[in-house]
Amino acid sequence: AVKQANPDAVFILEHLGDYSEEKDLSEYGMLPWRNMNNNYSQAAMGYASSSNFVDSDGKGGMFADGWVGYAESHDEERNFSKVKDYGEGNLQEDEAARMARVPLVMAFAHLIPGPKMLWQFGEMGYDFSINYCQDGSISEDCRTYRKPVPWTMGWDEDPLRMQAYEGAADVIRLRTTYPEYFDAANVTVQNCATSVFRGDAPRQIRVSYTDEENPANSIEIIIVGNFSATSSINPTLSFPNTGTWYDYLTGDKFNIRRSQRAIPLASGEVKILTNRFLENPTPVEETEAGEETDVVVYPSPTENMVYVNTADEIYSISVFDMAGAMVADVENSDEISLAGLSQGNYIMNVETSAGSSVHKIIKK
């Protein structure tokens, strides 16, 4: 009935069954989930055992058009909770080292072809256990309890968390801006089927895209990462052409004079190298604390109504409690009622034609 109403409808199934059954569903056009949580948790922690992302033929695993692959979900332990508790080397005590691995894990989870799911706050290295209780203890009885959310903990002002977030955003932006590059026919993975981390043969995703109608849009991309948590590496990579290459994540450019060149990688580092410059714009400009903005929210404190003053078109206003739950929202309006809400502090998000802004408000 759904397909009759909308032939383009997509069915995504949280259906973790036998492969033969999933294959039948996939061939029928449905997209079963594919759980790769343990593999990516192992890699994130710096452990090579059981960390393969694909099967021995370079496909399967995370490389599958007919499944939705994921490193995290609502039912699985968070990757970076495991990194914090069990990580190799200095990962348990060094938050900077942990956060530096977020873009690495994101790149190898989301730049391998096939549909993907990103679970909430994975882009910031969310490290509260799925079994975290509100009193700070850990118990399976708390599995479905509310968990802390980033903006109540100041992560949006934490340089390490924001660096992880921005690196993750760069990865996702590459995939969504140039989806044609990441069709299965254009991508090969290297050393991702193994359960070892080799300094001379690191894990790679390679893209070779040819645009017959517009050759200037053709591109070669090398994604290379060092999953070791204890050592830097200096692997020699093969480049498909000489000339100018670019580091997508930093904007730096460098010259390749021979078909092979050593590329140093720190522990937990990922590089995305392209033979053509790709714009990597930040979609929303950051606003420094205390800086004047074009969105004014008033009054605060308030007993009921809150008003928004801006020259831009207002798309939506959303209000969240301090646990992160949305408690009120309205579209295409410059005011919102807080009637029925308890006294206390709230977070208001205003979406306009110029972007989004976040404001703290108090209900009297």
Automatic annotation (TrEMBL):
Pfam families: Por_Secre_tail (PF18962). This is T9SS type A sorting domain-containing protein. It comes from the Bacteria. InterPro entries: GH, Secre_tail. The lineage of its organism: Bacteria, Pseudomonadati, Bacteroidota, Bacteroidia, Bacteroidales. It comes from Candidatus Enterocola intestinipullorum. Residues 297-362 form the Secretion system C-terminal sorting domain.
